[in-house]
Amino acid sequence: MILAAMLVLLAAGCKSEYDALLNGMDWDAKYEGAFKYFNEGKYGHAAQLFESLSQLSSGTSRDDTVQYYWGLSNYRYKDYVTAETNFSHFLMNFPASPMASDAAFLRIDCLYRSTLRYELDQTPTTNAIGIINLYLVEHPDSEHRAVCEQMLKELGERLDKKAFENAKLYYKMEYYNSARVAFVNVLKDNADNIYREQILYYTAMSSYKYAQMSVEGKQRERYLTFIDDYYNFVGEWPDSVYKRELDVLYRRAQKALGRYSGTEEDLMEKEKDFERERSKILKQSAEDAS
Fold first, then answer.
1. In Å, what is the CA distance from 242 to each residue of 200, 230, 274?
2. I need a labelling partner for 233 at 20 to 30 A (CA). Which of 45, 87, 223, 285 fits?
3. 237: region left, alpha or beta (phi > 0 left; psi from -120 to 50 alpha)
4. What is the pTM of this model?
5. Is residue 290 very low, low, confident or very high in pLDDT (cuts 50, 70, 90)?
């Protein structure tokens, strides 16, 4: 009981010391206390003290230091949204400060850390990419260049996945015409999308299934669209794992167009070969996963 009471009193004493600094007007004591908490790793307390100091330090020689460490305290506290605001304000007001270069990098690191997974709104991702690119232009010899380029790579891939998955959703819902349009538009927006192979595959699959489901009077035109998509795919990815499946659909489309020169038995045998190979691959994949 005595030990517990002592701990409570000690905690109360510590709290009182911090509250006294936070609510007091002793500039020097508050300044020293802010750095004391910062150096002890108590970044939440430090951030609040630096925020309190920001009103007192305005126009003094310590102003940029207070503003910078306010942001750095929030950064270390992992409050990246507030820290980014701090660093943005700092850079606007103290562009010539010796701490400006570090603040600029920390700002973009805050933006990077505040981005969202691909399923969610990617506006923060787009914003971060723009500011990171600007940073690299303004700091071409930055020691952080490699880190920034890795950030750009990861954020760009996230946007690629977002675009691919959005288009793929139409395919899953069996809106095949809309799916094809969406996949085509993904590559119009970014021809270097990292999912390019899959996008071209699903473009062809969408056009085939759309033709297959169409009324007879419109099938010819739509099978011809699939043939174009098929050639686009195999011309770019001749060794793709998807090619055998598209080859099967290509022969079916040619048959529907009256262009297939083989027999029905030959066509069926080729399709059986494909199905056997696919079953073997799926079985091997399941065994590898287990």
1. 10, 11, 11
2. 285
3. beta
4. 0.80
5. low
Query: Sign of the C-alpha dihedral, residues 46, 47, 53, 59?
Result: positive
Cβ atoms 211, 205 nearer than 8 A: no
50, burial (CB in 10 Å: exposed 0-12, middle 13-18, buried 19+): buried
d(CA 127, CA 286): 41
pLDDT tens sequence across 270-280: 555 555 555 55
CA distance 111 to 113: 5
Residues 165-199: tens digit of each pLDDT: 999 999 999 999 999 999 999 999 999 999 999 99
- The domain spans of the chain are 26-159, 161-278
- pLDDT tens digits, 208-265: 999 999 999 999 999 999 999 999 999 999 999 999 999 999 999 998 888 766 656 6
Kindly report the CA angle at 200 between 170 and 219, in degrees rounded to 5?
70
Q: Indicate the residue type of 249.
A: L
Q: Are both 26-159 and 161-278 of the same fold?
A: yes
**Burial class of residue 190 (count of CB atoms within 10 Å of its CB; 0-12, 13-18, 19+):** middle
Nearest to 87 by CA among 71, 102, 98, 74: 71
Burial class (CB in 10 A: 0-12, 13-18, 19+), 222: buried
Question: Which CATH topology does 26-159 take?
Answer: 1.25.40
> Domain 161-278 is in which class?
mainly alpha
253 Cβ contact partners less than 8 Å away, ≥ 6 residues apart: 208, 211, 223, 226, 227, 230
